[in-house]
Amino acid sequence: MHNDLERSGENDRRRLESQLQILETQAQDLRAQLSQERDIIRNLQLQKELDLKDLQNRLDKVVSRNFLQSAQDFKMS
Question: How far from 66 is each of 49, 60, 71, CA to CA, in Å?
Answer without folding.
Answer: 26, 10, 8
